[in-house]
Specification:
Layout lengths: L1 E2 L7 E6 L2 H4 L8 E15 L12 E15 L3 E14 L7 E15 L3 E13 L11 E18 L2 E6 L2 E7 L9
Antiparallel strand pairs: 1-3, 2-3, 3-4, 4-5, 5-6, 6-7, 7-8, 8-9, 8-10
């Protein structure tokens, strides 16, 4: 039986142009904003390793901080949202941990409706070995960075042809946590 709870949870969201970001130079037509989120909570389970033979209670407390930024202009669009979670395990079934995840993208419209360039980044935590339970010790960080141009040819007022070229790099980072082996 797994039980989960949230203790003293709080949530703050600000979706407004922060003063420092609002001072960034750019065309007056550009819309920009920032988001800040903070969450504190906890979870309890009576089977931390998700194993029928070896059961152990565990209480996890965590603090999650999210930061986002967006800017939409005629020539440049930027979007980013990243979260950092600091987790502490009361019975030390897993080491204290900090994980950063998120995504961002930048689009430059060199020739509006004809040619634009994109750069994207995504960082996420993935299951390392699908044969084992989905627990913290069986996770790894994955980064994907891709970039390339998109050419747009207008065929008619209602149809266009888009040609995309992308170069992507995918990298995995061992979590360095106890019990992880490759």
């Amino acid at each position: 039986m797994n039980t989960m709870f949230r203790k003293g949870a709080f949530f703050i969201a600000v979706t407004a142009a922060m003063p420092a970001l609002a001072q960034m130079p750019g065309p007056a037509a550009a819309k920009q904003g920032a988001t800040l989120e903070a969450t504190e909570g906890g979870e309890h389970t009576d089977n931390a390793f998700k194993n029928d033979r070896f059961k152990e209670d565990e209480t996890k407390s965590y603090i999650d901080l999210g930061l986002g930024y967006s800017r939409a202009g005629d020539a440049l669009a930027i979007q980013a949202m990243y979260n950092a979670e600091l987790a502490n395990y009361e019975n030390d079934t897993t080491e204290e941990d900090t994980v950063v995840q998120g995504a961002s993208s930048i689009t430059w419209r060199a020739l509006p409706n004809r040619l634009h360039f994109d750069v994207q980044h995504e960082r996420s935590e993935q299951i390392q070995d699908s044969r084992n339970p989905d627990i913290r010790n069986n996770r790894q960080l994955r980064d994907i960075v891709s970039a390339g141009p998109t050419f747009i040819a207008r065929l008619s007022p209602v149809a266009d042809l888009q040609l995309n070229a992308r170069n992507s790099e995918v990298s995995y980072e061992d979590s360095g946590r106890v019990g992880v082996a490759r």
